[in-house]
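Thread: "does anyone have the structure for this chain?"

Original post by V.I.:
We have the sequence but no experimental structure in hand. Need at least a predicted one for the grant figures.
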Amino acid sequence: MGGITGTWNLDGSPIDFYKLNIFIDTLSHRGPDGRGMYIDPDIPLALGHRRLAIFDKSEKAFQPMSSQDKRFWITYNGEIYNFIELRKELESYGYNFVTNSDTEVILSAFDKWGIESQFKFNGMWAFAIWDEKKKQLFISRDRFGVKPLYYYYDKKDKKYFAFASEIKSFLALPWFDLIFNQELINVALKDYVIVECLEETFLTGVSRLLPGHCLTLSSGKNLFIERWWNTLDHLQTVPPNYCEQVTYFKKLFIDACKIRMRNDVPTASCLSGGLDSSSVFCSIMKIKETVVPTEEVPENSHIGFVASYMNDIDNEVEYAKEVITHTKSTAYYFEIDQCNLLNEYFDIIYSYENISDIHIGPWLLFKKMRDLGIYVSIDGHGGDELLAGYPQYINSLLQAIAFNWHPVQLIKNICRYLMIIDGFNGNKYKDNKSLFYNDLISSLILVVKKILNHPVFFEKEKKIKQSINPNRNIQDILTYLPKSFFDDQERIANKGLLFRQLYLDYHYFLLPTNLRDFDLLSMAHGVEVRSPFLDWRLVCFVFSLQEKSLIDKSFTKRILRDSMKGILPDLVRMRRAKGGFANPHASWKFSVLDEFIMSNLTSHSFKEYSNDIWPNIIDDYKDAINTNNVERLFSIWQHLMSYWLIKIFKRKRDELIYVN
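Reply from O.Q.:
Generated one for you, tokens below.
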């Protein structure tokens, strides 16, 4: 685990060892526990690694690591959770191991199965393997892109190739020209979620290796990239009986949590009080109660970290406390306000290296974890995108049932889904059945009134027209979208709208953005995040289910709620309100934050930057404050973020290049 780098001077020019060390150490925050490099004896190729020690903390497990015959060398970021089972399988083929690390298992698996070894791994990873004999570099990224990988390839002159775990690392390469892709930045300012699925990045020349893809570069040959994973190829026949589905889902989920508990260090969870993080936390505590500690499930402590947002409507501390009380466990609570954001603002901007939402709560939680010697956080990322947890997914079902003109069934269905929507806002119904079976005329009036006024049902016209995914405005990036997107779009065209939305959000839009942000948030402090909802076995099973297994009986995430019965306290398991980690928009009316924003908006340098993009931004900000226009305020906040991102990157570039 940690951060990885690599350089290959394709023109044969010698490696600058001083600059190489700087390049590697740009990722010291990802790997504060050690560093290493490998240089090929024949050609100017180097691999670098910054280590976050999770498994086998001995020097034998340092990277770059070689196979025992010294043919293969690996630099690797991630975790292979099923490495114990793979190690036993490889031992049956005659392989021997000198460490207890998963890194050595990857090397042996690659030696045995080649690129097919990727299908053997259950985990998150970005690794590069150098074949010293063939002079061939192979780079792989995990199925869903949990771990990042960026590369530079000089297609025209074929002089340089380089890769790294973060975009900012390329600032240390003396031959790299810092040019911002302003067109892509402008797209992100309209909708920051839609850019993470693209190969291009905000730095011209730096590309993203997409999730489920691998890269091969051989001496004297062109770069070759192929897609090795597609979830659609691994859908399965599920039990027709819903109770059997719940049983199997629970089995998969518990095991996904269990194998993510493997480590040699204490673990924790960021506990929001929501269904996903609470399910993970309670499942882990249940496993610890029932399983005898072994190598597979070590006896390590596991605690919760809870952010309390002062004066915020999204504060979910009461639910997090219910989980802690239910499991008889320990938690750390942190009060967070806008001052915390301002104190950490510039560090967060540089760490994020993208235009995004700012999750100040997790940032501070991960920072505190590292201070307390905790290097692993097992969290609930992916649950909303996998199990239809966001309010917008109800819209797809409402659109579908709108064509069912059987009066009674239509009213029942509409009432059912509108109840779920109201539940997201915290509204409660004491008697669910009354909406279905009470006076038909009153119900019809209620339904019509809600349909005519409910913003979730009637999205903006431009979004409604995008039947493939009405929640994302992808028109601005059509020319950037990768081939895999169009291939998948064609394959899922005959699927229901809910499936299409979930599939694209999970593989291309919402989830990739969240994974990127939380990787950067956590690894900025040397903390690794593991997510059971990203287990490929669970993902393939859920995408094989019918929509009623996900949204029915007046609830979203139906199968998760039912599988957690007896494990999760009902106060959390049956709540409908959708919260999550609060963000800056909740604190706009605080004077400290307002002063910070105005001082930036009125500065000469910001006016020069924003004049062409948003010439009236100051007046619009004042108007947005007066009218409490949260959407407009957030847009202004992101423009400010893009301004500082460019400014900080330019400053950091000068520091790295001209360092003595």
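V.I.: this helps a lot. The first helix runs from residue 17 to 25.
O.Q.: and The chain has 25 helices and 17 strands.
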